[in-house]
Structures are given as C-alpha cells and as structure tokens.
C-alpha cells in the first residue's frame, strides 16, 4: 500500500489527545508561541464540543500516525446569509509536507 492510499482524514477524537498535543505544540513552536497547559485542555475540549458555532477539529493520519491537524469553525458573515468556514489552524508534520498526500485533498 502506498502512503497516498494510507492517508486518512477524520474528525478529532478524545483518544487523539496526546498525539494532537504533540502536533499542536509543534505548530505553536513554528510561530514561536507558547500557551499554558490549561489552554491546551480548554482548546481540546472545545474542539470536541457539540456547539455548531464552536470549534471543530480534523486530523490527518498517515500509516497509523497523526501527521496533521486543522481547526475550523463556521460563523456568520456580513455578505452572505449562510455561515462560512474559517480555518483557525492548519499544520502538517514537517516530515510529510513534501509527500504527494498533500495534493490528495
């Protein structure tokens, strides 16, 4: 099986917490930012929340390993009747950034 075929994108799950936290920390480090541990916990809980106006999370899994994340939300827009999607965060592990999977979606 090729890596392209092994790529999966799915909603964030509670069981992803540790792997998500490692990617989130790498994302923050990329921007030279830091946040207290309490903020990690609150944000993760918000990503798993049921509020349709709240944050949502997706993860990319390659060969069984979390390699990417995106956080997004739907919100009202001044120029449209329907809500629009805003991507809050987008991160891929540097080790997989140049693979063909980035073109898959």
Question: Can you tell me about this structure?
Answer:
There is one protein chain. With 105 residues, the protein is an alpha+beta fold. It has a single domain, classed as Gcn5-related N-acetyltransferase (GNAT) (Aminopeptidase, 3-Layer(aba) Sandwich), CATH 3.40.630.30. 28% of the residues lie in helices and 35% in strands. It has three helices and four strands. It has a four-stranded antiparallel beta sheet with strand order 1-2-3-4. Strand 2 and strand 3 form a beta hairpin. It is globular, with a radius of gyration of 15 Å.
The sequence of SSEs as H and E is HEHHEEE
Question: What is the structural class?
Answer: alpha+beta
Which topology does CATH recognise?
A: Aminopeptidase
Largest sheet: 4 strands, antiparallel
CATH homologous superfamily caption: Gcn5-related N-acetyltransferase (GNAT)
* Beta-strand segment tally: 4
**Architecture per CATH nomenclature, i.e. the level-2 architecture:** 3-Layer(aba) Sandwich
Q: Please mark out the parts with pLDDT under 50 across 5 or more consecutive residues, or reply none.
A: none
Shape: globular
- Beta-strand fraction estimate: 35-45%
> How many angstroms does the end-to-end distance come to?
18 Å
Number of domains: 1
Query: Tell me, what is the CATH class?
Result: Alpha Beta
Query: Average pLDDT, to the nearest integer?
Result: 89
Count helical runs: 3
Side-by-side strand order of the widest sheet: 1-2-3-4
